Amino acid sequence: MRYDSLLDAVGGTPLVGLPTMSPSPDVRLWAKLEDRNPTGSVKDRVALAMIANAEKEGRLRPGCTILEPTSGNTGISLAMVAKLRGYRLVCVLPENTSEERRQLLRMWGAEIVSSPAAGGSNEAVRVAKRIAAEHPDWVMLYQYGNPANADAHRDSTGPELLADLPEITHVVAGLGTTGTLMGLGRFFREHKPEVRIVAAEPRYGELVYGLRNLDEGFVPELYDDSLIDARFSVGPRDAVRRVRELLDAEGIFAGISTGAILHAALAQAARAVEAKVRADIAFVVADGGWKYLSTGAYEGTIDEAEQRLEGHLWA
Amino acid sequence: MAIEVRVPTILRTYTGGEKAVTAQGGTLAQLIDDVDASNPGVKERLVDESGIRRFINVYVNDEDVRFTGGLETAVSDGDTVVILPAVAGG
Asked: Residue B67 and residue A228: Cβ atoms within 8 Å?
């Protein structure tokens, strides 16, 4: 495949079958390899769409500063696009994210403002909103409420899945900003409404849920629960176990959040087997495992890995 | 046998600091009433007139009850119920 530039190479990722982990010829699992995007994650689609949209609306002009709260992947993707399009990027990143993410952000030229570990991404959002108020000329793309985030998946990921797997019955993806699932939900509700849209949400250690009061809770503005059919909370133990199985059985080296997504996909597969119905279940491999090697998730026993991830924002 | 209910840090003032309590009921609503009977005040933090509060998520065996019948979701002995505040990802 030939492209005019790196930005033209975003999307169009492979859909790969899981011949070993699929329970039967009638109930099959398919991995959408979003780690094949230019910076190695599904967020390249989102970053490109949000920046292109802001340019179209005239909110971004060359030389502008972009500000974004992010636990990593969105920031890395924005840094790459911002570099190529001539913007400065300031990311607000929770302290408890992997060192690889920080190094990658710096490599692509982003400036990092750290937000406290307690409260996780909620706190990063709060800090970013405060900084935005102090710098009214900066442009916060705000992935949690920017429709271009969801639209990127409605317009590209969804059509790619349906074209590669017309018999698709389920889509399973991670729930963070909710953008992936909102976009896929909108696409399939319109084009193949019987497809079940399933969310896998990472369940972190207690530190991340350490809000001072419940009013500090956060539901992304993009979220519309009518666009999904089921939502599962998956802890680090199941995520690590599944991400290792994926490598052992199928040779796919994915990030930890993909383990959580696969766990939810396998639950859907088990239900289909039990109900004796056909199923073609596609799930999103959000990124590769490279950025998480330092967390220790891929070495030692599951118990050890689970302990090491305590307090980490691993998705 | 009973149903284990895991309580987030922010609600442990109602459970004497306990991370988990056990309770009984055939539906989530009955279960929450039972938890509230021994830990008064919990229910008010979890539920309002419209159902489960906006910034609270409740999972039965890891599945979000908003997609399984809400407060009328059936629960039975051996189930695990997890209560968490809604937080951002991404």
From this structure: yes
A10 or A96, greater pLDDT: A10
For chain A, what percentages of helix, strand and coil (3-state, to nearest 5) are there?
45, 20, 35
Q: Residue B1: is its pLDDT beyond 80?
A: no
Q: Which site among A50, A201, A213 would you substitute to test the B interface, given the most B Cβ atoms closer than 10 Å to its Cβ?
A: A201
Instruction: Indicate the residue type of A232.
Output: F
Q: Which of B54, B82, B85 sits opposite A211 (nearest CB)?
A: B85
Using the Cβ of A232 and the Cβ atoms of chain B, whether some distance falls under 8 Å is answered with yes
Tally of structural domains, chain A:
2
Q: Is A257 a catalytic residue?
A: yes
Q: Are residues A91 and A198 part of one domain?
A: no
Q: Of A105, A140, A175, which marks where a domain is finished?
A: A140
> What predicted TM-score, i.e. pTM, was given to this entire model?
0.95
Q: Helix and strand tally (H, E) in chain A?
A: 10, 10
Indicate the residue of A122, A143, A179 with minimum beta-carbon distance to B87.
A122
pLDDT band at A143 (very low <50, low <70, confident <90, very high): very high
Shared domain check, A278 and A135: no
**Per-residue model confidence (pLDDT) at position A314:** 78
- pLDDT value, residue A308: 86
Q: Are residues A265 and A189 in the same domain?
A: yes
ipTM of the complex: 0.94
Query: What is d(CA A24, CA A42) in angstroms, rounded to the nearest whole number?
Result: 28
Q: How far is B36 from chain A (nearest CA, A)?
A: 18
- Identify the domain boundary among A114, A140, A166: A140
Q: The domain containing residue A102 runs over which residues?
A: 43-140
Tokens of A273: 């087997």
Residue of A nearest to B82 (CA): A233
Contacts of residue A102, defined as CB under 8 A and 6 or more positions apart, other chains included, come to: A93, A112
Residue A148 lies in a domain: no
